[in-house]
Amino acid sequence: MSQNPTTAATVEVAGAASRRTRRRLLAILGFVATVLLTFLGLLAITFFIGRVIPIDPVLAVVGDRASSEVYEAARVAMGLDQPLPIQFVHYVLNVFSGDLGQSVSTGRSVVEDLSRFFPATLEMATIGIIIGVVLGVPLGVIAASRQGSIIDQIIRVVGLLGYSMPAFWLGLVGLAVFYARLRWVGGPGRLDIFYDGLVQPVTGLLLVDSLLAGEIDIFWNAITHLILPASVLGFFSLAYIARMTRSFMLDQLSQEFVTTARVKGVPERLVIWRHAFNPIRVPLITVIGLSYAGLLEGSVMIETVFSWPGIGNYLTTALLNADMNAVLGSTLVIGAVFIFINKISDVLYRVLDPRAR
Amino acid sequence: MSTRDWLLEDSPHSRLQANAGRAYRVFTALLRNPLSVLGGVIILILVLTALLAPWLAPYSATGQDLANRLAPPSGAHWMGTDELGRDIFSRVIWGSQITLTIVGLVALISAPLGLLLGAVAGYFGGWTDRVLMGITDIFLSMPKLILALAFVAALGPGINNAIIAIAITSWPAYARIARAETLTIRSSEFIAAVQMQGASPFRVIVGHVLPLCTSSMIIRVTLDMAGVILTAAGLGFIGLGAQPPLPEWGAMISRGRTFILDQWWVATMPGFAIIIVSLGFCFLGDGLRDVLDPKSEGK
Questions:
Q1: How does pLDDT run across B15-59, given as a tens digit for each residue?
Q2: Who wins on pLDDT, B137 or A197?
Q3: Cβ count within 10 A of residue A79
Q4: Within its chain, how far is the Cα of B266 from the centroid?
Q5: DSSP H helical segments within chain A, as ranges?
Q6: Is the pLDDT score of A317 beyond 60?
Q7: Residues 6 or more apart from A185 whose CB is under 8 A from it?
Q8: Which of the four, A46, A115, A197, A229, has the lowest number of CB atoms within 10 Å?
Q9: Cα dihedral sign for B270, B271, B273, B277?
Q10: Contact between chains at B150 and A37 (C-beta distance less than 8 A)
C-alpha cells in the first residue's frame, strides 16, 4: 500500500507542531532556570551580607544584650561550627522551607512579621502605580503629540524632578502642606487612632477589608490616610512613565505609517490613539512593571516618613536595632518581589509582542 | 597662530594637541546648550562652596545657640535655625563637602571597578564573560537602595560604609556598558595589530580598550550622580549614613522630621540643596550625552 500524501502532510504538520512545543518547553525551562539562578544569586548576596561581612554573625543576630546561653544556642542553631558552603546550603534549604529565623526586636518569626506588614506596602504601592499610570500615560502621549507645548515642558520638568527629588523629602513637604496647613488629608499611619483595630484583617488590605466588613466610615478614613503617601509614590512613577511614554510616542509619530494615515485624512485623535499608541502598549507594560517594582523600593523611605506599618518601616526599624534576621528577611522578600515583577513583565513582553515570539 | 587655531587644527602634531582640541570642541558644544551650562555652573558652585566653606559659611556648622533655637528664616539666619540653634544655611554650606566627597569617592570606586570587570568580560568572552556577567546581572536585578541598606546594616552605620555600600551597588551598570563597548572594539583592526605585536591582554585592555570606553562612561557616571546623592541622603535620613553632628543633608532632613508640622524650614531647606545639586548633574549629564553620543539625542 502506497503512502497516502495527506498522512505525510499530517505527519509533517504534527512534526512541526511538536517541534514548536519542544521549543516552547525549552524556552519555559530556560526561563525557570534563569529565575532560579537569580534567586540563588540573591540568596548568595544576603548570605554574604549576613554571615560573611559581620565579624561576629551571632552577635549580629541576637544583639549585644543577649546572655551567653542564648548566644551559644544561636551559634549552634546557625550552624556556625560548619564550613561556609555547608552553611550556605542550610541557609538556602531554610529559606525554601519558609524559615527566615527569629526577629530580635518583635520576638516573632520573620516570616510571620513580613506577612503581617506586607499588605500595607502592597496597598500603598498599588494605589501609587494606579495614579502613575492613569495620569502618566495620557500626559506622556499629549506631551509627545504637542511637542514644545506647555504640557510638554511640564512633563520635562516633572521627569527631571522625579530623578532629583528625595522621596522622603517630598513626603515631608506633603505632610506640612496638605496635613498641617490645609487639613485636606489624614496624618501619618493607616487610620485615625479611634478607628484602629476595628476591622478584622482578612486580606490585610484595609480598603478591601473595610468594605468587606461594611464599614464605609473606616474605608473613607483609610483613603484620607492613604492618598498622600500613595500620591508621593505616584508622582515618581508618573514622572518615569510619562517620560518613557513621551519618548516611545515620539518614535512612533515619526514613522511613515503615521504620515500615511495623516495624508489619508484620518482624524488626528485616531492617528495618535490608534495608529501611534497601539504599538507602544507592549513596551509600556515593561515600563509599568519596572516602575511598580521601583515603588516597592521607594516605599521604604515613604513608610518611614508616614509611620506606615509596612515592610519598609519594618526594615528600617530592624536596621536601627541591628536586627539582622529581620533585615535580611525583608531584603530577601523585597528583592524576590522585585525580581519576580521584572521577570513577569519580561515574559508579558515576549507573549504580547508578535515580533519577540 | 592663536591658541584657538592651535586647538582646532585639522591635523594635530601631537597627542596633547589632539586631546586638547577634542576637549575644546566638547566644551564649546556644551556651551551652546543652555541647560548643560546651567548644570555645569551648579556643579562648579558646589565644588567652590565645598572648597570655600570655612569662608562662605556665616556661622559654624556645629556651634549651638540654644537661645535662638528653631528661629524662622530671617536676615540673620537665611534658612532659619534648627533645634539646637545652629544656622541651617551654614550647615547646608558645610554639607556640600560631604556630598562632594560621597559623589567623588563613589565615582572613583565604582566606575573603574565596573570598567575593568566589563572590559575583561568582553575581551576574553567565553566562561569569563558568562560568570562575570552572571554576577553583574544578579546585582542589577536587585533594588539598589535595599541592597545598599543591607550592606550598611552589616558593615555598620557611618559615612565611609555608606560610600562603600553605594559603590557596591553602582558598579554593575558600568560593567554592562564597558562590556558592550569592548565587544565592538575587540574585533577592530587596530586591536589585532596590537595583539600581533605581542601585547599582553592586560596591555590591550588598559592601554587600548579602556580609553575608548571613557566617554560613554563619563556620561553614565554624571547621569548616575543624582541617584547617588539621593541614595546617600536616604541612608543619612534613615540614620545609617553620616552620623550627627555631621551636617549631611539627608541627616539634617531627618532631624527636621519632628518639627515638620510647625517649623517647616528645618526639614525643607536641605532638601532644596539636594534637588538643585541633583538637577545640576542631570543637566550636565544630558548635555554631555548629546555632545559625546549624538546617536541617543533627545531620548
A1: 888 888 888 888 888 888 888 899 999 999 999 999 988 888 887
A2: B137
A3: 15
A4: 26
A5: 5-47, 57-62, 68-77, 84-96, 110-145, 150-164, 167-174, 206-212, 216-253, 256-264, 268-270, 277-306, 311-320, 324-352
A6: yes
A7: A178, A179, A224, A225, A227, A228
A8: A197
A9: positive
A10: no
Other C-beta atoms lying within 10 Å of the C-beta of residue A311: 28
All residues of chain A having their beta carbon less than 8 Å from the beta carbon of residue B147 are 45, 331, 335
Cα distance between residue B172 and residue B204, in whole Å: 22
Cβ–Cβ contact B295 with A under 8 A: no
Q: Under an 8 A CB cutoff, do A319 and B141 touch?
A: no
Amino acid identity of residue B291, one-letter, is: V
Instruction: Say yes or no for a CB contact (<8 Å) between B260 and A176.
Output: yes
A339:B141 CB<8 A: yes
- pLDDT band (50, 70, 90) for residue B81: confident
pLDDT score of B72 more than 70: yes
Q: Could you tell me which of A173, A294, A181 has the C-alpha nearest to residue A228? A: A173
Q: Which amino acid is at A45?
A: I
Please give the backbone phi and psi of residue B68, each rounded to the nearest 5 degrees, phi first. -110, 30
Lookup: cell for A300: 521604604
- Amino acid symbol at B233: A
Q: Is B81 helix (H, G, I), strand (E, B) or coil?
A: strand
Asked if A275 contacts A258 with a C-beta cutoff of 8 angstroms, the reply is yes
> Which residue, among B135, B138, B125, B107, has the nearest Cα to B205 in the 3D structure?
B125
Residue of A nearest to B272 (CA): A165
The contacts of residue A242 (CB under 8 Å, 6+ apart) are A135, A136, A137, A139, A140, A143, A155, A158, A159
Least confident stretch, A6-20, B91-105, B110-124: A6-20
- What pLDDT score was predicted for residue A336? 87
The size of chain B, in residues, is 299
Chain B residue with minimum CA distance to A165: B275
Which of left, alpha, beta for A205 (phi over 0: left; psi -120 to 50: alpha)? beta
Residue partners of B4: CB distance under 8 A and separation at least 6: B24
pTM: 0.85
Cis peptide before B34 (omega within 30 of 0): no
What value does the mean pLDDT of chain A take? 83
| Topology classification of domain A112-356 | MetI-like fold (1.10.3720)
Domain range annotation of chain A: 112-356
CATH of B87-296, one of 3.40.50.80, 1.10.3720.10, 3.20.20.140, 3.40.50.880: 1.10.3720.10
- Give the angle B288-A237-A327 at the CA atoms, nearest 5°: 100
Contact at CB, B149 and A319, closer than 8 angstroms: yes
Mean pLDDT of A292-318: 87
Report how far residue A302's alpha carbon sits from residue A124's, in angstroms, rounded to the nearest whole number.
10
CB contacts, 8 Å: B92 with chain A: none
User: Out of A166, A294, A296, whose CB is closest to B233?
Assistant: A166
CA distance B41 to B298: 22
Alpha carbons B210 and B194: distance in angstroms, whole number:
14
User: Domain residue spans in chain B?
Assistant: 1-32, 87-296
- Other CB atoms within a 10 A radius of the CB of residue B69 amount to 14
The ipTM assigned to this model is: 0.85
User: Among residues of chain A, what percentage have pLDDT more than 70?
Assistant: 91
**Tens of pLDDT along A64-90?**
677 777 777 777 776 777 778 888 888
Reduced to 3 states (helix: H, G, I; strand: E, B; else coil), residue A108 is: coil
Model confidence at B299, in pLDDT bands (50, 70, 90)? very low
Give the Cβ contact number of residue B59 at 10 Å: 19
